[in-house]
Specification:
Oligomer: single chain
Number of helices: 14
Order of helices and strands: EHEEHEHEHEHEHEHEHEHEHEEHHHH
C-alpha cells in the first residue's frame, strides 16, 4: 500500500485523555499505511505524544498560563502560526486530522488548501461560550467528518455539516495487558479510594479532601496532572488529612489502580461535563468499581448500581454513604468489581481500531485483520 500523509494536529501534549486517545488513533492509522506529520506543543511534564515512533514531529510554540489573558493571547498566537505553517506545508492528497475543537487555525488552512479535514471531538465544556460557538462554527464549515467519543458529545456539539461517527475511546494495548494481570478484586486493607485528574477545582479535588476528612478509616489517593510544585501548592492550600496522599502526574498508573478498591470521578456538572472518562475505563479494566457524575458521556460507561454509582459531587452525604457501603459490604464490592471488568471489554481496542478504519474509509476486512495481527504481534 502506498504511503499517504496524515497531518495530525493537537494543541498541547500532556498526560490527559485526549492526547492518549489521539496517539492510539494515529498508531492504528500508521499501520494502515499513513505516514504521520504531527504538529503539537508539549507540556513541561511531557505527554502521551512525546517520542512518537515513525512520525515527524513539528513543535508548536504554545504554553498554558495561570493568567487568563496570557493564555488567550498564546492561544490566538498559535492559531495564526498554525494557519501560516500549514498553508505552506499541506499538499494535495493530505488528510488533516485535528484533535479537539481547539486548533481552528489548522482547520482554516485545510479548508484553503482543499484537504479533507477530520475532527476528533472530546470536549463540550469550553469557556467562554463565545469561544465555544466560534470553534463549532469553524468546524461546521471546514470539516468533512467528525469523530465523537460519546453520544453525549455528538448531541452537545451539534455539528450540522460534517458526517458524524461515534468512536468510543479505548485504552492502550499495553494497559490492557497490565490490567489483565490484576486478576482478582483488591482484598488488601485499608480500603482505598483513588482519583486521577487535572489540578482544577471543577474536577472535585476539594470535595475529595473533604470526603477524606469524613471517612478517616478509608485511604484516599489523589493523582494530579501537574508537577511536584503544583502538588505542593495544592497541599498548602487544602491541608489534606493524614489519610489523603497527593501525587504529581504519573507515567505509569497501574500501581495506583492495583492499590485501589474504588476509583472516583467527581467533576462538577455545572462547570465541567465529562464527555467520556478515561480513568474510569482504566479502573474498570482493572476490575475496580467506580463512582461517576450523573451527566455526560461518562454515564455511557456504567449502569448505576451495577459497575458502581452515579453521584452528583454536590451531594456529599450520598458520596460518603456510597463509599462507606462499598468499604463495608464485601459481597456488593465483589459483584461490582466483576461487573466493571466485564463492561470494560465492550470498549476494547479491536472495536476502536475497526471504528477508526471505517471512519477513514479503510473498511476492507483484510486490512482490519492486518491491523489486529500487528497489535497482537507487538503484545
Amino acid at each position: 500500500m502506498s504511503s499517504k500523509r496524515l497531518v495530525a494536529v493537537h494543541l498541547l501534549n500532556d498526560w490527559s485523555g485526549s492526547p492518549l486517545v489521539f496517539r492510539q488513533a494515529l498508531e492504528a492509522l500508521q499501520q494502515s499505511g499513513y505516514s504521520v506529520e504531527l504538529f503539537t506543543a508539549t507540556a513541561s511534564t511531557g505527554g502521551f505524544l512525546s517520542d512518537f515512533p515513525s512520525a515527524n514531529t513539528h513543535p508548536l510554540g504554545y504554553r498554558w498560563s495561570p493568567s487568563k489573558l496570557v493564555t488567550l493571547l498564546n492561544f490566538l498566537g498559535v492559531q495564526v502560526r498554525l494557519f501560516v505553517r500549514l498553508l505552506f506545508f499541506l499538499r494535495p492528497g493530505d488528510q488533516l486530522y485535528i484533535n479537539t475543537l481547539l486548533p481552528f487555525g489548522a482547520a482554516l488552512a485545510g479548508k484553503v488548501r482543499r484537504c479533507p479535514v477530520t475532527y476528533h471531538v472530546h470536549e463540550v465544556s469550553i469557556r467562554p461560550r463565545l469561544l465555544r460557538d466560534g470553534l463549532r462554527w469553524v468546524a461546521d464549515r471546514t470539516a468533512q467528518r467528525a469523530l465523537f467519543v460519546s453520544e453525549y458529545t455528538r448531541q452537545q456539539t451539534a455539528l450540522r455539516r460534517p458526517s458524524a461517527q461515534l468512536v468510543y475511546n479505548t485504552l492502550p494495548d499495553r494497559f490492557w495487558v497490565e490490567a489483565t494481570r490484576i486478576s482478582t478484586p483488591n482484598m488488601v486493607t485499608p480500603f482505598t479510594a483513588l482519583m486521577l485528574c487535572s489540578n482544577k477545582a471543577y474536577k472535585g479535588i476539594n470535595e475529595l479532601v473533604a470526603c477524606a476528612r469524613q471517612l478517616p478509616h478509608i485511604r484516599f489517593l489523589l493523582v494530579l496532572n501537574t508537577d511536584p510544585n503544583g502538588v505542593a501548592d495544592f497541599v498548602a492550600q487544602t491541608h489534606p488529612p493524614a489519610n489523603c496522599t497527593v501525587y504529581p502526574a504519573q507515567t505509569d498508573t497501574i500501581p495506583f489502580y492495583r492499590q485501589a478498591h474504588v476509583v472516583l470521578n467527581l467533576s462538577h456538572p455545572d462547570a465541567w461535563v465529562e464527555t467520556f472518562g478515561m480513568t474510569i475505563l482504566e479502573a474498570m479494566a482493572c476490575g475496580r468499581p467506580v463512582i461517576t457524575p450523573t451527566v455526560g458521556g461518562i454515564c455511557e460507561l456504567i449502569d448505576d448500581g451495577r459497575e458502581g454509582f452515579k453521584i452528583d459531587v454536590n451531594r456529599m452525604p450520598a458520596l460518603v454513604k456510597s463509599l462507606g457501603q462499598l468499604s463495608s459490604d464485601i459481597q456488593l464490592y465483589l459483584q461490582m468489581a466483576e461487573a466493571a471488568r466485564k463492561r470494560a471489554r465492550f470498549f476494547g481496542p479491536a472495536r476502536f481500531r475497526q471504528s477508526m478504519a471505517a471512519a477513514f474509509g479503510l473498511s476492507d476486512t483484510h486490512l482490519i485483520h492486518r491491523l489486529e495481527n500487528v497489535v497482537q504481534n507487538r503484545e
